[in-house]
């Protein structure tokens, strides 16, 4: 135990004192916050852009229906000749010219109204204009047929389905977004952690091998001890880095947004929905968050996070031991990257679509994908026994994989020169 | 004399490859024991087994009478053939870390390290990183790491390969010094001169088998061929040679001499003594040089391996 502690401390210090590590720790939050601020700034900039659209209506009946708003200003050019209108638009560099041909057949107009522009207009602009024209034409058509458009709009019923669980609590429809956010964030965080710090474990194994210090170390400690110390020391360094990222990044974001007065939260989809929703919706959402099995989520998050990290980093350590330099690691990366990617994709497509479907369920049992997939499923409510089975499979696999990795590690760290094949790795298990 | 390290029938296989085949060795206390053998003979495998880096498939090893166990690592100092240090770690910190892994307390390790730094006059290296040191300097640190915990058994795998001549000398002197202070030294090499120079005992391993072992002086006695190197001045060389060849096996040889003499290697049959040869020679000429030919370790090595081929 004393040696394990020594190894953990050394590995931790070696990681933390590394220059690249220090730079990454403090520069990453700056870059991230910079990106967020930049995106917020750019989207503000974009929406400020006012488009001027000229309307040329040969019937002189539609212009009054087009009221300018903050995005688009409409000018009435119907007084000019069509050619003059087009020239003016081009000269003044307006966004475009909307042209209604002479006709009182609204169906004809619906098909033959034209928009002239030098630059192809954006998709959202086109659909905006289309729906505007469509509603104008519909109202006119209704009036023509002697129907009161107000009666129609009054007759329309907007449905807002109230979702309740069987114990009678009302839930917000937004709660799925919240669950998705919780699960997705947890799964994604785990994947990032595994890739970043698993790689670090691997590099540190390779470093010991190329420095040729490994034989001196393992004449003092057991290879398994060294491997576990390495994994733990690196993970503590990782946690340190994550905490600094969150704290430093949070402070930075707060300071910058308050200095520049940028509303970063404006563009998030949940908020947009919230604006539309009523007070009642917000209340329900809060109830939902409180009602999320938070204790369960946190508990499972810790277990799957630690389990998943141990599972993968032992594989990383074995890969590091099997090769002499980092370029040789590529061929062994597949067993790590494929299940991780699979976990994330299954999580983002299958779980969100149907959290308790067959695919999601199976992948939340398979040990290589279960940490990611199960973490995403849990906010949607997973039975205890399901979690238990999945965890037992995971823990069993961890022990098996650490055993295999330790075997490869033990043999690999003393092998120099040639790049081993999978077949040779298998043979090492029997040494 | 009591033995510090005893190996009994130690075998190790890597898949189908037999790295060691029933090796038995006894290493007496306070001796310098050389394991000889060509590359790939199994020397490093044996050393790794003693260091508990690899486990033997069969056989037992005893250190100081006890079966080898994990706690014994603190009594063993190991300088592997493939050696190095953490490049980006500071010298002092690194040596302390490695010494603590060997069971020393941080305080004790610091004290001893200061002593060694003074002894080798490298006090100002404490806060330097290994990558700032020259190779020779790093080798000195490496040596300190090996001996700092004052092990009973010191194991050097090819200690002279990779060391520059100055450091090689330093190591040779320290090896003798440590032996005199009570340590037992096991070293493996394929360089015969170093065995000649240093070892009290030796074992010869070839293709995973031990071919011979024992005290170096006794092995030499065993391998001597009753051959004498002679420098003699005679009047009629051809007549003399003819007479000589009737009684003994004769081969020409060469050594440095200030005389114009006939230089010969003369082998005598067991039923003659060297006095018989001497009296024969005396009756024919003036003897300038008469010495027994003692086989070098190199000769023994080659001869043994050839006889087993």
TrEMBL record, chain A:
The principal localisation class reads: membrane
- Tell whether Ribosomal protein is among the UniProt keywords: no
Q: Which domain of life is it from?
A: Bacteria
Q: Where is the ABC-2 type transporter transmembrane domain?
A: 19-406
Source taxonomy = Bacteria, Pseudomonadati, Bacteroidota, Flavobacteriia, Flavobacteriales
Swiss-Prot/TrEMBL keywords? Cell membrane, Membrane, Transmembrane, Transmembrane helix
Q: What is this protein called?
A: ABC transporter permease
Q: How does it sit in the membrane?
A: Multi-pass membrane protein
- Fetch the InterPro entries from UniProt: ABC-2_transporter_component (IPR051449), ABC2_TM (IPR013525)
TrEMBL record, chain B:
Can you give the residue ranges of the ABC transporter domain? Answer: 5-232
Domain of life of the native organism: Bacteria
Entry keyword set: ATP-binding, Nucleotide-binding, Transport
Query: Which segment of the chain is annotated as a signal peptide?
Result: none
Which InterPro entries does this one have? Answer: AAA+_ATPase, ABC_transporter-like_ATP-bd, ABC_transporter-like_CS, ABC_Transporter_VariousFunc, DrrA1/2-like_C
Stored SMART domains? AAA
One annotated GO molecular function is: ATP binding
The UniProt entry, under PANTHER family, shows: ABC TRANSPORTER ATP-BINDING PROTEIN ALBC-RELATED
This chain belongs to the protein called: ATP-binding cassette domain-containing protein
The species this protein was found in: Mesonia aestuariivivens
């Amino acid at each position: 135990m004393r040696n394990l502690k020594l190894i953990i401390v050394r590995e931790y210090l070696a990681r933390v004192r590394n220059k690249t590590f220090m730079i990454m720790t403090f520069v990453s939050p700056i870059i991230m916050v910079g990106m967020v601020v930049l995106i917020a700034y750019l989207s503000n900039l974009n929406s400020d852009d006012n488009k001027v659209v000229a309307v040329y209506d040969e019937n002189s009946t539609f212009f009054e229906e087009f009221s300018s708003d903050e995005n688009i200003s409409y000018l009435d050019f119907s007084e000019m000749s069509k050619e003059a209108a087009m020239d003016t638009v081009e000269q003044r560099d307006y966004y475009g010219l909307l042209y209604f041909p002479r006709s009182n057949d609204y169906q004809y107009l619906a098909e033959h109204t034209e928009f002239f522009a030098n630059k192809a207009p954006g998709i959202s602009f086109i659909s905006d204009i289309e729906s505007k024209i469509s509603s104008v034409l519909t109202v006119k058509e209704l009036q023509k047929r002697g129907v009161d458009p107000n009666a129609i709009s009054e007759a329309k019923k907007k449905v807002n389905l109230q979702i309740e669980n069987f114990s009678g609590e009302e839930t917000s429809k937004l709660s799925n977004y919240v669950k998705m956010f919780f699960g997705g964030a947890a799964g994604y965080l785990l994947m990032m952690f595994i890739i970043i710090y698993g790689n670090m474990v691997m590099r540190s194994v390779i470093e010991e091998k190329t420095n040729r210090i490994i034989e001196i170390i393992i004449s003092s400690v057991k290879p398994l001890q060294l491997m576990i110390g390495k994994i733990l020391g690196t993970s503590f360094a990782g946690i340190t880095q994550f905490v600094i990222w969150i704290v430093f990044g949070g402070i930075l974001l707060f300071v910058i947004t308050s200095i520049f007065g940028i509303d970063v939260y404006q563009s998030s989809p949940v908020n947009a929905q919230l604006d539309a929703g009523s007070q009642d919706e917000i209340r329900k959402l809060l109830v939902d968050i409180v009602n999320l099995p938070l204790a369960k989520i946190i508990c499972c998050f810790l277990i799957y996070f630690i389990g998943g990290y141990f599972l993968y980093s032992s594989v990383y350590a074995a890969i590091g031991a099997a090769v002499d330099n980092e370029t040789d690691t590529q061929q062994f990366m597949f067993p790590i990257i494929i299940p991780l990617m699979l976990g994330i994709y299954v999580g983002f497509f299958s779980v969100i679509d149907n959290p308790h479907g067959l695919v999601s369920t199976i992948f939340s049992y398979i040990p290589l994908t279960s940490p990611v997939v199960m973490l995403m499923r849990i906010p949607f409510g997973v039975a205890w026994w399901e979690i238990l089975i999945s965890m037992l499979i995971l823990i069993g696999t961890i022990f098996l994989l650490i055993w295999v990795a330790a075997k490869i590690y033990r043999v690999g760290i003393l092998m120099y020169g040639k790049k081993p094949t999978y077949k040779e790795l298998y043979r090492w298990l029997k040494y | 004399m009591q033995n510090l390290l005893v190996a009994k029938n130690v075998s190790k296989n890597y898949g189908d490859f037999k790295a060691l085949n029933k090796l038995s060795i006894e290493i007496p206390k306070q001796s310098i024991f050389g394991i000889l053998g060509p590359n790939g003979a199994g020397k490093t495998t044996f050393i790794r087994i003693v260091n508990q880096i690899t486990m033997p498939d069969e056989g037992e090893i005893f250190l100081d009478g006890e079966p080898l166990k994990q706690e014994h690592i603190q009594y063993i100092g190991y300088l592997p053939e493939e050696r190095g240090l953490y490049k980006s770690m500071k010298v002092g910190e690194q040596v302390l870390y490695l010494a603590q892994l060997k069971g020393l307390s941080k305080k004790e390790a610091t004290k001893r390290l200061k002593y060694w730094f003074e002894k080798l006059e490298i006090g100002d290296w404490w806060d330097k990183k290994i990558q700032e040191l020259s190779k020779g300097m790093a080798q000195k640190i490496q040596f300190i790491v090996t001996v700092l915990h004052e092990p009973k058994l010191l194991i050097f795998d090819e200690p002279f390969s990779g060391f520059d001549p100055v450091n090689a000398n330093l190591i040779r002197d320290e090896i003798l010094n440590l032996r005199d202070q009570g340590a037992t030294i096991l070293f493996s090499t394929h360089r015969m001169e170093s065995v000649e120079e240093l070892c009290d005992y030796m074992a010869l391993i070839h293709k995973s088998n031990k071919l011979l072992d024992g005290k170096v002086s006794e092995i030499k006695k065993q391998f001597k061929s009753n051959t004498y190197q002679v420098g003699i001045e005679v009047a009629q060389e051809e007549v003399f040679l003819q007479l000589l060849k009737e009684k003994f096996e004769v081969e020409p040889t060469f050594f440095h001499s200030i005389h114009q003499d006939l230089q010969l290697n003369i082998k005598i049959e067991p039923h003659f003594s060297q006095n018989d040869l001497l009296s024969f020679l005396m009756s024919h000429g003036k003897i300038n040089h008469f010495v027994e030919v003692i086989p070098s370790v190199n000769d023994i090595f080659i001869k043994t391996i050839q006889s087993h081929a």
